[in-house]
Write a structure and sequence with these properties.
- The chain is α/β, with parallel strands linked by helices.
- The protein is about 35% helix and about 25% strand.
- The chain has helices at about 5-15, 15-30, 40-60, 75-80, 115-120, 155-170, 180-185, 210-220, 270-280, 295-300, 325-335; strands at about 35-40, 65-70, 90, 105-110, 125-130, 140-145, 175, 195, 200-205, 235-240, 245-250, 255-260, 285-290, 305-310, 310-315.
- α5 (about 115-120) runs parallel beside α6.
- The longest helix is centred in the N-terminal third of the chain and has 20 residues, at about 40-60.
- It is elongated and about 70 Å long.
Amino acid sequence: MLLNKTIRLFLDSIGRREEYEFYLNKFQSAGTDCFALLVPDLESLEQGAEALAFDLHFLLKLGLKPAVVLCGDDAETQWNLLKDKSLFERTVFPNLGKKEDCVPVFVEETFQPLESLTQKVPMFGKRVHFIRAAGGLSTEYVYVQKLPADLQPEDRTLVETAAALLDARPGTHISVTSPINLLKEIFTVKGAGTVFRRGSTILSGEADPGRLLALLEESFKRKPKEHVLADVTQTYFEENYRGAALLEQQPEGLYLSKFAVGSEARGEGLAQELWDEVCKKHPAFFWRSRKGNPINQWYDRHADGRHTADGWVVFWRGIDANAIPGLIAFCVFRPSDFV
């Protein structure tokens, strides 16, 4: 889709161009009748109906048609906050409305969100965004198979709904955000809310070399050299090869040679799951990243220290201070692993 200058400038204000272009292409090629199902609460519409309407109008301009789902006792009250805006068209399941330039709204007082969404996913689409005035939870991801013990009552209800929906409709993308952060949540890897996930299966040990090399090429957008796996002593990988961490035992210490997450899995929390598995098994290791690599901000949050030299940023965790000069030299003089 060719974006005009105004739309491009607005998207540039939301996030990095390579990120929003990736998500835009992904959503536009999904082939679903509805881009996403949006489930606002009453307070979010009382405080941010105008902001929500602006965002949804923008999504329509991008060729992405969302639908709004209003459920429960206050569904009619919520509709009253939207009905005067020509953007919204009230409709009845299973119809998605008659007007292409309008956002269909399902108003279902007799349904709770879980019942309504289970019915509509995946008939219309496989993305659900809950919208609350309070926005996301205190964490970027919630893994519903191991719920945090300190959930507030209002958060627990939402998490339990998300967990039940993921059980009923596996593969659904579910998040919660605020009206003013909806587009950032949709079009950036980091997002601006909380994503609910069932959690991935992380394996270790022997892996398929061909699938690992394909993952590295997809993740780094460069073809890896044939020797890249030769010195790997430990491999952690998601069961479907959507992400992997490769480690080498070098004289200088344990070296994280590659940390890769496939394009489709970015923004889903898989990177954190892989990282946690590596850290759980290996308290001390080091790695390098190209200077200017956007992931360096993420690495900064997970490293004990860093050093920049010759175009590389060298990071480490749990490393004795006396060993740091040696591992920096190793990273600086190590040849590139890509063609």
